[in-house]
Amino acid sequence: MNEVKESVIDADRRSLFDWLELWRYRELFYFFTWRDIKIKYKQTVLGFLWAILQPLLLMTIFTLFFGRALNIPSQSLPYPVFVFSGLLLWNCFSSGLTNASNSMVNNALIIKKIYFPRLVIPVSSILAALFDLTMSLLIFIALLVIYRVDVSPAAIWCWPAAIVLLIIATLGPGCLLAALNVKYRDFRYVIPFLVQVIFFLTPVIYPVTFLKYQSLQYVLAANPVYAAIELFRLPITTDHELQMTWLTISIVSGFVFLAIGLVYFKSTEEYFADFA
Amino acid sequence: MKPVLEVQHVGKKFSIRRSGGYLSLRERLSTGLFRGKESHEDFWALDDVSFNVAEGESLGIIGRNGAGKSTLLKVLSKITPPTKGKIIIRGRIASLLEVGTGFHPELTGRENVFFNGSLLGMRRNEIQSKFDEIVDFSGVEKFLETPLKHYSSGMQLRLAFSVAAFLEPEILVIDEVLAVGDAAFQRKCMGKMEEVSKSGRTILFVSHNMAAIRSLCTRAVYLQNGSVKLIGDAYSTTEAYFNEAEVSDDGTNGVYDFGNTKGLVRKAEVMCDERLSSILYMGCALRIKVHFEHTSSIEYPVLGIIIKDRNGAPILGINNKHYHGSVVEKPVSKGAVELLIPSLPLFSGIYHVDLHFGDRFQDLQVKRDCLTLHVEPASFSSGELPDPNLNRIFIKEAEWSFTN
Questions:
Q1: For strand B171-175 and strand B202-206, is the pairing parallel, antiparallel, or unpaired?
Q2: Would the N or C end of chain B have less CB density within 10 A of its end CB?
Q3: What are the C-alpha distances in Å from B114 to residues A146, B131, B154?
Q4: Considering only A257-261, B17-21, B398-402, which range has the smallest mean pLDDT?
């Protein structure tokens, strides 16, 4: 036997994070993501079309009600572009969060029968949601062309940065909810409501400056999705100044949630098979 | 040389909640706020289990239902952590607690092979390089691009086992996956397992089939109520298992109370010529009555009874679906299903019974080896029994005639 790897399962000593192990299982992230995407598109007849259609329809509805009827300001942008740029990221966040929350329960059969770092499951379900994002990014670019919106080339780095922030913003709460959902089975009823609430606390359909009370603006900034959306809109707006304080609060909040989510997930992880 | 696997004083505790079922947030909030501690019972599924496995050894793990075999496998496979003790594993370990884990009906055969293989710990290029062999072994090459939902269950199983068969860990942990599939495929699987064990890899094998344990394993661990009762060579350990099983089931008087905490099968009664008893006579009227209680009502309860010889080989498997269909007129959630065999066709000996309880589509609960039948020689009409060495079944009534 050449070079024997010794591993120890010890009831008295448990490591919280084993990054090396996660790295060894890296292919599994790919396979779970790939499976989730495949299954999703095999089960819907409309398939890819749905990923595109859904934000477009929402955009139309929001434009009619909030843009036209209520006359909500949209920075320097045409309202449809404004709302779509927000929806793009919001959809990715909300579907990522919902998928992640249910992911552990949905994969209970696998969890009970085979070992791998459980973190693979919620993370992959969030990565699978990114696939829809790339679809709607194409629509977004088409919209920019149709509405002749100028894109500042110097600020284009904001887009990938916003997506990275979005992933971080989804991971923390996603892992937290996934773990809670395994432990408390009635938690899943809370999730759609929670997502709805966060939607109104996210500047998707209105700009932050639209809010009259400054204290409310701080509440909004504590939302980790806020930074992603603000940053994402930066290259296409002209009259808009980044609020560095709020941005910092939002980014820090994203990392705080990430830490809480990961630690809670890891601390309950090994008992998932007993609960599930 | 150090053993490849060292299990040291391993214990696993489960807290069984009195109320049963899953935790709920609502409950947690109310108990947290008003009552403090929730009532639960501790249960040690494994208690101070220690053994070593040397390189290249195949170790069988035996024991009755609830002895802790599955828990031990889960602890060894890192699926659930031990409460006490320590396990040292030297080498790559792979466990097969089920074949086809993660198989998805919407994915094609090819896609499932890749996903399942990767779950079992194979690298992508490893699966790629073995892909043809895997497909070849499974015999489903024509349907590779077909979604799994169109496969027959036999095909699914073959594909699943084939992926598993090409795993190359140093230590392989297997849980009774062989108890499925048609006879030809089972032989193929056993052959593959023997090949694996001969190739110098270490195998841990849990089974109820003592014949399989004897042919595959060199040593065996006999678990009883979560502790190691005996470790020794496969033959003597299985022998001890038989003898123990024979003794421990006396005194049940034909009534097997399974309690009401776990599962829907609550109680079984065995009657011989209308008297409760687990000691039967060849050719007697055997009655097996199974009491059940379920959370929802069952439209078409199906009771399946499998009678196995002392080696664990099944010799009779029947259920009401095959005979007269449903035993109820309207859906029921509790009651008792009863089987009457007017003349027991078993030769004298000891038999173990598996109970399968379900609806017409699936098993809701399977209880393995949960009843033991002691069949005693009957007073046969001639006073002399047919030769026990020639007979495995017993025919009480036979007609003989003469023509010329």
A1: parallel
A2: C
A3: 43, 9, 19
A4: B17-21
Please give the residue of chain B at the shortest CA–CA distance from A44. B106
User: How far is A97 from A171, CA to CA, in rounded Å?
Assistant: 8
| Residue among B25, B98, B101 whose CB faces A186 most closely | B25
> Which of B120, B15, B38, B153 has its CA nearest to residue A28?
B120
| CA–CA dist B401, B394 (Å, integer) | 20
Query: Which pLDDT belongs to residue B245?
Result: 58
Closest partner CB to A5 (pick from B26, B92, B121): B92
Please give the structure tokens belonging to residue A249.
């609060």
B22–chain A Cβ distance below 8 A for any pair:
yes
Interchain proximity B114–A31, CB inside 8 Å: yes
Cβ contact B107–A112 (<8 Å): no
Q: If pLDDT is split at 50, 70 and 90, which confidence band does B187 have?
A: confident
Q: Is the C-alpha dihedral spanning A30, A26, B135, A115 positive or negative?
A: negative
Banded pLDDT at B200 (limits 50, 70, 90) = confident
- Determine, for residues A11 and B119 on separate chains, whether the beta-carbon distance falls below 8 Å: no
Could you read off the pLDDT of B260-281 as tens digits, one per residue? Answer: 666 788 889 998 888 887 778 8
- Asked whether B87 and A9 are in contact (CB, 8 A), the reply is yes
For A106, phi then psi, to 5°, come to -65, -30
The SS3 call for residue A172 is helix
Per CB-CB distance under 8 Å, the chain B contacts of A111 are 79
Least confident of A153-157, B19-23, B185-189, B336-340: B19-23
* pLDDT at residue number B383: 61
Residue A158, helix vs strand vs coil: helix
Residues in A touching B14 (Cβ below 8 Å): 274
Nearest residue in chain A measured CA to CA from B55: A1
Q: Is B80 on the interface with A (CB under 8 A)?
A: yes
Please tell me which of the candidates A27, A38, A111 has its beta carbon nearest to residue B123: A27
Distance from C-alpha of A96 to C-alpha of A165, rounded to nearest angstrom: 13
pLDDT tier at B252 (50, 70, 90 boundaries)?
A: low
CB contact under 8 A, A6 and B88: yes
Could you say which of B23, B90, B106 has the minimum Cβ distance to residue A185?
Answer: B23
The reply to whether residue A110 touches residue B119, judged by beta carbons under 8 angstroms, is: yes
pTM above 0.80, yes or no: no
Give the pLDDT confidence of B231-249 residue by residue, as tens digits.
999 888 888 877 765 554 4
| ipTM reported for the complex, 2 dp | 0.83
Question: What residues have CB less than 8 Å from A133, skipping those under 6 apart?
Answer: A88, A89, A91, A92, A163
Per the DSSP assignment, residues forming a β-bridge with A9 are B87
Residue of B nearest to A32 (CA): B115
Q: Which residues of B touch A271 (CB under 8 A)?
A: 80-81
Alpha-carbon gap, residue A225 to A91, rounded angstroms: 11
Q: Does B86 touch chain A (CB under 8 A)?
A: yes
Residue whose C-alpha is closest to residue B46's, from B19, B74, B17: B74
